[in-house]
Amino acid sequence: xxxxxxxxxxxxxxxxxxxxxxxxxxxxxxxxxxxxxxxxxxxxxxxxxxxxxxxxxxxxxxxxxxxxxxxxxxxxxxxxxxxxxxxxxxxxxxxxxxxxxxxxxxxxxxxxxxxxxxxxxxxxxxxxxxxxxxxxxxxxxxxxxxxxxxxxxxxxxxxxxxxxxxxxxxxxxxxxxxxxxxxxxxxxxxxxxxxxxxxxxxxxxxxxxxxxxxxxxxxxxxxxxx
Length: 226
Fold this sequence. Notes:
Blueprint: E1 6-10, H1 12-21, E2 31-35, E3 55-58, H2 67-80, H3 86-100, E4 116-117, E5 123-126, E6 134-137, H4 157-173, E7 193-195, E8 202-204
Parallel strand pairs: 1-2, 2-3, 3-4
Antiparallel strand pairs: 5-6, 7-8
Helix pairs in contact: 2-3
């Protein structure tokens, strides 16, 4: 069985990842995760040569990358509000830039209904021990938290979701049957060593080692719980 690969792109790296996946030929990638993205110049999994349900996105509510999408309309409003003749000059310049497509990389993948949108806020997930125990995951903020662990040594919802998608690929590659990331009875084992994004120190949380290495249930947007 050929290996399963997950392509991950953050920020403008998501754009280059999206462009690479659109190149002709078999790229060998089976899943793609895009987060904090300014656009990937694709609107369907098929354009990326991926199957439906295999493209995942995340965007925090306060990620400044959103200005890539919100900024141009606001700029045009500001230009129109300038006194003459500055308004005419500004609108002419902006119109010329719009015509070149500069800075435009397609619609926001994090709001595209053709892709699977994963949660970024606080979430509670089962601890993977088979009982009623749970783990409370911190949410991510801004543009850089997505792969970072929280200061208590547990993953944030975002890097838990990254691990969840990858864990399914690893399990499939090992020859076991693929399980959907919607299967809440399975959980990924996060790395045992975490780096605190606030202080930069590294420490081990014993709770991490008790999460079995099985396919994970990715937390979808709307499934977060405080």
